[in-house]
Amino acid sequence: MSTNTKIALVTGGSRGLGREMALNIAKKGLNVIITYNSRKDAADAVISEIEQLGQKAAALRLNTGLIALFDDFFSRVQDLLEDKFAAEKFDYLINNAGIALQSPFAETTEEAFDELINIHYKGVYFLTQKALPFLNDNGGIVNISTGLTRFSYPGVSVYASAKAAVEVATRYMAKELGNRGINVNVVAPGPVVTDFGGGGMEDNEQMQEYMKSITAIPRIAYPKDIGPVVAFLCTDEAKWINAQRIEVSGGMNL
């Protein structure tokens, strides 16, 4: 293995979309650091899978909604880079970690609003800011958004609004970090069958049929449809893609 192997940091990489992103990034020949919030066993399983692919991998615990802990987190990242990867910095940051909130606009509480904004917008904003000294020039950032910033469904106003804020921030990051050769993009999945938010679509055949009916390619999406797109953005082939929102929804609500 080359000592010049690049390194990607994937938040929320222990399950669902994040797991698939981490594995596909490893298949591109990168080493991977993932974060997890509570499921260390799941994180360890992903690490094992990545190592079986011939890449180095490690996991760190992080709650991306607790901004006050970010300095400590990057201190741990720095130690991990030196000890595990013989590196000083990493190359790609994938802001994927998140939670779901299904709540009608009229009933959403301030507490729920604050928690979701902290994780999905404020956390992404300041985690990326704190990452900059540890991110190599000519690296990249991928922010994960949602199809719900383009089309609307009742009950997800806070989630979609936070993701829309991330999409705008992405363009500003691209503008302000371009002089370091860092490209910044958004990947916006449509509905995907995972356990995210309690796995609302996994066992709901009626919902699955509805999603198929409004999608140009009439099938349900799985994490394997999203992970390779994020992995591609972590390659030199994608270097000239910058400040873009790439929706991966099969052509939903066209």
Tag the structure with descriptive keywords.
alpha/beta, 41% helix, Rossmann fold, single chain, 254 residues, 7-stranded parallel beta sheet
Descriptive notes:
- With 254 residues, the chain is α/β, with parallel strands linked by helices.
- The protein has one domain: Rossmann fold.
- The protein has seven helices and seven strands.
- Strands 3-2-1-4-5-6-7 form a seven-stranded parallel β-sheet, sandwiched between helices.
- Helix 4 packs parallel to helix 5.
- The longest helix has 22 residues.
- The N and C termini lie far apart (44 Å).
- The model has no long low-confidence stretch (mean pLDDT 95).
Largest sheet, in brief, is: 7 strands, parallel
Kindly state the number of beta strands. 7
Whole-number tally of structural domains = 1
Global mean pLDDT: 95
- Contiguous low-pLDDT stretches (5 residues minimum) are none
Structural class: alpha/beta
Q: Note the beta-strand portion.
A: 15-25%
The CATH architecture classification is: 3-Layer(aba) Sandwich
- What distance separates the N and C termini? 44 Å
